[in-house]
Amino acid sequence: MNKILFVTAYMPSDIGAAVKYTKSILDKLSKKYCIDLIYFTNKGDENEYNNCELNSVKSFDVSNWSRLAAILSKPLVYPLFSVRYSLKVKEYIKKMIDSNSYDLVFFDHSQTFIYGKDIDKKKILMSHDVILQRTQRSSLKVLSKLCRKTESEYLSDSNSTVFTFSEKDADLIRDIYNIKAICTNANIDENAIKSRIDEVKNYYVSFGYWKRPDNYEGLLWFVKNIFPKINNGKTLKVIGGGMSDKHKRILSEYKGVELLGFVDNPYNIIANSEAMISPIFSGAGVKFKNLEALACGTPIIGTEIAFEGISRRYSSFMLEANSIDEFIHQISSKLPDIDQRRNMKDDFTNSISRHEIIEYIDNYMNKLNK
């Protein structure tokens, strides 16, 4: 059986879109290949990741002190790329590679790319977003220059193939770094695809992992500045884990806001809502939650950043709003009816059936085995 070393920056789980993607990829790969997994855990992570089909699982804790030590140890590397670096992890990866005949090493998230520099094996680099684009939106010019240098160095690593979740990010990597990247479909939860649109009900939804500042800050902005002006007896159901007790208390003060927390299968709630609310003002890359909303047949009212990397083919369900007045206008406008939602849902789910990264790995392994 072909062997893969899989290194990811976060614990695979169902609590957030990116980590759910990782969990799905591991589930698929472990049915075909012998997988050794390395992942990093943050304070507050619950439980451990268990998959009985994996050959081995090793986790490393990340703390504020370890982050600081990592950044200081690599002063010429942009911090996002070095924040999970340690000699202990580097030596463990080296030991695993020296003692196993891996056919492929898979680095998931840009924070792990630093470990691929000295590895003379076939590598996949899964770039969840173009870090330079995120940096240019929020950092000083000097940091953007450092980010460009670091990202270019890691993406151009020898014997590597780069994957992204959108043609937009693939184009950015080509245009900025002159590196070819392959676009692969993001994983869409089967429950989103199977969700039923029975009746559009009198509520909106916001969905995400609320520990991320990108998500929470946009939600708070919406709840403070817009929702009191448009609720008229409607509710805003906030779905997803990771929200601090402090943030829960703040949001609970607003009339009509329902904090549902983590919901194992939230997709029928999303499918029967009036719209998904997605006010995101920072960050970069494809927003998985909005892809899953489209898979539910649900229109999305969101900012320009919320729709990055999503095909304009679905623009009638992607209602852009970047200010208070624009959000109020879009919410007050006529939204797609049930038949339109069902038709769009069928069209969207039919278009996402391929997983190019799995096909790439299968083809590569088949060539090795000939």
Automatic annotation (TrEMBL):
UniProt superkingdom: Bacteria
Keywords carried by this UniProt record: Transferase
A Pfam short name: Glyco_trans_1_4
One Gene Ontology biological process: lipopolysaccharide biosynthetic process
Molecular function as annotated in GO: glycosyltransferase activity
Keyword Transferase among UniProt keywords: yes
Listed name of the protein: Glycosyltransferase involved in cell wall biosynthesis
Organism: Marinifilum flexuosum
